[in-house]
From TrEMBL:
<feature type="domain" description="NADPH-dependent FMN reductase-like">
    <location>
        <begin position="3"/>
        <end position="147"/>
    </location>
</feature>
<dbReference type="GO" id="GO:0010181">
    <property type="term" value="F:FMN binding"/>
</dbReference>
<protein>
    <submittedName>
        <fullName>NAD(P)H-dependent FMN reductase</fullName>
    </submittedName>
</protein>
<dbReference type="InterPro" id="IPR029039">
    <property type="entry name" value="Flavoprotein-like_sf"/>
</dbReference>
<dbReference type="GO" id="GO:0016491">
    <property type="term" value="F:oxidoreductase activity"/>
</dbReference>
<dbReference type="GO" id="GO:0005829">
    <property type="term" value="C:cytosol"/>
</dbReference>
<dbReference type="InterPro" id="IPR005025">
    <property type="entry name" value="FMN_Rdtase-like_dom"/>
</dbReference>
<dbReference type="Pfam" id="PF03358">
    <property type="entry name" value="FMN_red"/>
</dbReference>
<dbReference type="InterPro" id="IPR050712">
    <property type="entry name" value="NAD(P)H-dep_reductase"/>
</dbReference>
Length: 181
């Protein structure tokens, strides 16, 4: 059994990023253990707290550490990732030398209601993952544009093509992760 952590870069309730993540997870093996890692309650990272980290930092670091692989789904905020996602990356990579992201295979998906599909946020996130030492699946590239038309109010895909594409990405990610076990 593989443990997959899912980090949703949007803190908005019923976000399209959550919809994309749930559709990807449906393609994981039946015995996969999936944990959605909450990032919205993390206080801003502050190096002054490294010596005596708040419990919420420690709990998040422990939750990340317990995962075998991570699925990231990010919206695009001002041509980058959300502040909440950047903060989560920082919290779990510190104190210096205690990066709990390191070595965990990653999948990156971006989404936007625009036609450019969060491409810039996607690549900003990938750059951070390189530094965090996370091997990242290269194909398929998951740039999900016009997400407001691809999911209904229940966060379900509105067409079979989207549903199949995202579930297939989850399946391919499980194969990618298996190479690291």
């Amino acid at each position: 059994m593989t443990k997959y952590g899912v980090v949703i870069g949007s803190t908005r309730k019923n976000s399209y990023s959550e919809a994309v993540a749930k559709a990807i997870v449906k393609g994981l093996p039946a015995d996969a253990e999936v944990t959605f890692l909450n990032i919205k309650d993390l206080p801003l990272y502050n190096q002054d707290l490294d010596a005596d980290s708040p419990e919420v930092y420690t709990a998040f670091r422990n939750a990340v550490s317990a995962q075998d692989a991570i699925i990231f789904v990010t919206p695009e905020h001002n041509r980058s990732i959300s502040a909440a996602l950047k903060n989560a990356l920082d919290v779990a990579s510190r104190p210096w030398g205690q990066n709990v992201w390191a070595g965990k295979p990653a999948l990156v998906a971006s989404q936007s209601i625009s036609g450019i599909s969060g491409v810039l946020a996607h690549h900003v996130l990938r750059q951070s993952l390189v530094f965090l030492d996370m091997p990242t699946m290269q194909q398929p590239e998951l740039y999900i544009g016009q997400s407001d038309k691809l999911f209904d109010e229940n966060l379900e895909p509105t067409n079979e093509g989207t549903k199949e594409f995202l579930a297939d990405a989850g399946n391919k990610f499980s194969q990618f992760v298996a190479r690291f076990k």
